[in-house]
Amino acid sequence: MKGVERITALGQRLWYDNISRDLVASGGLRALVAQGVRGVTTNPTIFEKAVGEGEHYDADIRALGARGVAPKAMVRELMISDVRRAADVLRPVFDASLGVDGYVSIEVAPDEAQDTRATVAEAKMLWDAIARPNVMVKIPATEAGYEAIREVLAQGINVNVTLIFSPQSYDRVADAYCRALEDRLAQGLSIDRVASVASVFVSRVDTVVDALLQEKLKVAPAAEAKRLKALLGRAGIANAQRIYQRYRDLFRGKDFARLRARGARPQWPLWASTSNKNPDYTATWYIDRLIGPDTINTVPPQTFQALLTHKPRALLEAEMAQSQTVLDGLRREGVDLPQILDQLLDEGLGAFLRSYEALVARLAHKKEALATS
After folding, report:
1. What is 3-371's CATH number?
2. Would residue 138 show up in a list of annotated catalytic residues for this protein?
């Protein structure tokens, strides 16, 4: 059994964290689906990279420019087109799984992430424009986002909640999902096909925490150095394990039982940012330790390739007890994990906004260049 098939057999689905016009048009996405990919995610950084490579978008940019479409609206048009095509490729997976798999995600504009009303309006616009049932609109887990998530889900629009770092943020996301289902029931609407995932970011946590631990290692005596080394590469995983425990308590417990009896599905945990950002760790460092029932792992191309020959092990539930040991160890070393998680949310929002602005600027430049060529 191949690595991807084995992961599926262990209860986890793999989504591909990449999209481009060429990937869909060339048949590459269909090939990935045949290899076991069950969904696709994207974000402004991925789109910015896709548009910047090659000439796959030039014809559309030229046509949109001739119509007088502004660069920001052009971004939206190109993203909608790519996501719609990808959703059509994944549609057989969606149908065969009765709506459990086969989703493609598209993100609301990052410059509206702090505006509830604007986020709700954009989510509805994207949903209506794409007009595919196997699409999820990505909304970040911000203060404004929590209410937007509830409103959008209550309208029957699937949501991928992104940039979740802390357990407290996860709790509010899960609460928004359950409240949205209750809202629909109160209106006499069905809840059996409303789908949502909670995207928890992992490796970015270790990028920050490991840097702090490495500084301490420079001056640590031998006994302390051993304890510090044991914490390297573990903070993000321990944090994800802690969130997974909350998921199990809520969605497998009696509080969700009434909604489950009405056909509701759980809001599946999705592990994001699981590529290896430290060359000292294996390419699959964040794979085995996060494999567990009812989970999704969204992996970039290089990680997916590593999985094709990997022999995975489901360690998420088996190593749950270790998470508290890691978190206690970080506290003893003076690592303020809650503060770091808040910082990472701010940085994530900033990074997506910068990529989005770079994409708009790139399209403005291309629009002018193509108009005169």
Report:
1. 3.20.20.70
2. yes
